[in-house]
Amino acid sequence: MTIILKIGGSVLTDKNKVSAAKPEAIARVAREVSEALSPRLVLVHGAGSFGHHQAKEYRLKDGLNDWSIKGILPTHNAVKSLNAMVVDALQMSGVDALPVHPLSNCILNNGRIEHMCMEAITRMLRAEIVPVLHGDVVMDTAKGVGILSGDQLVAYLARALKADRVGIGTNVDGVLRNGSVIRELKPANIREVESILSGSVGVDVTGGMYGKIAELMALAGEGIPSVVFNAEKPGNIVKFLRDDLAEGTLISGD
Amino acid sequence: MTIILKIGGSVLTDKNKVSAAKPEAIARVAREVSEALSPRLVLVHGAGSFGHHQAKEYRLKDGLNDWSIKGILPTHNAVKSLNAMVVDALQMSGVDALPVHPLSNCILNNGRIEHMCMEAITRMLRAEIVPVLHGDVVMDTAKGVGILSGDQLVAYLARALKADRVGIGTNVDGVLRNGSVIRELKPANIREVESILSGSVGVDVTGGMYGKIAELMALAGEGIPSVVFNAEKPGNIVKFLRDDLAEGTLISGD
Predict the structure, then answer these.
(1) Which of A4, A47, A2 is nearest to A226 (CA)?
(2) Which residues contact A100 (CB under 8 A, 6 or more apart)?
(3) Where does substrate bind (chains A, B) (predicted)?
(4) What is the pLDDT of residues B15-67, one digit of tens each?
(5) Is B98 helix (H, G, I), strand (E, B) or coil?
(6) What's B204's domain CATH number?
(7) How far is Cα B167 from Cα B6, in angstroms, rounded to an integer?
(8) Contact of B87 with B132, CB cutoff 8 Å
(9) What separation in angstroms does the CA of A251 have from each of A161, A184, B233?
(10) What is the ipTM of this complex?
(11) For chain B, which terminal residue's Cβ has fewer other Cβ atoms within 10 angstroms, N or C?
């Protein structure tokens, strides 16, 4: 049983400030992962306020130029510092977690993953170590440099590792329509989703809820189901890991 | 012209203490790199006192077990913090440098590199960015976990990138015989080297001078020359990068 769990940057950080972590939320997430740990778990987290502002300031989405090149390191360092907090919190909760940084092992082609080195991740999973990856600034074969969102990363890892289940822990109760949670979505609903979703609050250079759902819809079409749920609600991560979550939006192909 | 330059941990840190950097030495090394920067340069640094002590305490060389698993993160974090100092110093000297962490992109097989993901490094070089790698703790397909020395990394990168020249900046004047520098070594001299070299001072789990020379001898046999030189002597890094270094030990195949 291979599980990919993403915890959104909005859960771990205050997206409206620059590099502002929520240490209590990070510690709680780590405790929940520890409580319901399964042997083949990959954790991915968004950058939240660590990285998005830097990426925007240096216009990393424009590709490589004399200005953006100066923004790669500060953007990478910002999200790496959030990653270190997450990994440390997991270790303090007794989880053998290790950081894996996309800038080191991944390249994009025009914003989409062209290659990601899976060997270290696979080896960690065999040793029952939880690899902890994150949205990052990454070299791009077409544009020089680009942004890899945690959501694209989740979809890539789910395919590469033939995951059984994907969980997307956000700060809302699921995919919403007029304030109510859509209980189930199928790839056929993509047009509907396009029309109902508006952008998230705060700065997010990677596309907010729509980008997230588009990645998951494609995944569902390939037989990998996912659940978008509220990870700010204590207990939900434990329930998701135990396959016992009765809320959120299920995105599946059947 | 592709150049691999390794700066030994002994140049950047005090190997007899735990996690003690030499900030002035790091800044000077960065200035020298900046002064003689060539477009395709890869920098590798040793762990020095960042990582060796942790690796020894947790017996990472024994492979993965209940004790060593707790040492992976502290060892990786220690050398990563040295790496951050080196990258920051380079950036402050105007060099577009980025970190690349072997734990993320490399696996060993019984202590030897089985696979290293070169894509990100290659892309950085094309963008005239200097990738900065380091000795690290790395997953191992045979032993679970192992230590990747900066020296093995240098040899691997030199082959993978078909490097033209390799520089090994240490805290001595070259390979020494009775206190005098051996000016030239060829692969045929390997037995002689075995007999004259004794271990370096301080703790070094990766083999000291002998391991270094064995890697370089093999490389020389494949047509990639290297120079072991004193990187504590101001100006030597500039001279090496400009191919104008008249001292040290040249290890070449012809």
Answers:
(1) A4
(2) A120, A121, A124, A131, A132, A133, B103, B104
(3) 47, 52, 150
(4) 888 888 999 999 999 999 999 998 899 999 999 899 888 999 999 999 999 99
(5) strand
(6) 3.40.1160.10
(7) 6
(8) yes
(9) 19, 6, 62
(10) 0.93
(11) C
pTM attached to this predicted model: 0.94
- Collapsing DSSP states into helix, strand and coil, what is residue B124? helix
> Judging by DSSP bridges, how do beta strands B97-99 and B130-134 pair with one another?
parallel
Q: Which domain holds residue B42?
A: 3-251
Measured distance CA(B248)–CA(A5) in Å, rounded? 52
With beta carbons less than 8 A apart as the criterion, state whether A128 and A121 touch: no
Chain A with chain B: Cβ pairs closer than 8 A: 99
**Distance (Å) of CA A115 to CA A64, A92, B117:** 19, 32, 9
Residues A131 and A125: beta-carbon distance below 8 Å: yes
Tell me the two tokens of residue B67.
């004790």
Q: Which residues of A lie closer than 8 Å to B, measured between beta carbons?
A: 64, 69-70, 72-73, 76-77, 84, 87, 91, 96-107, 114-115, 117, 119-120, 123-124, 127, 129, 138-141, 144-145
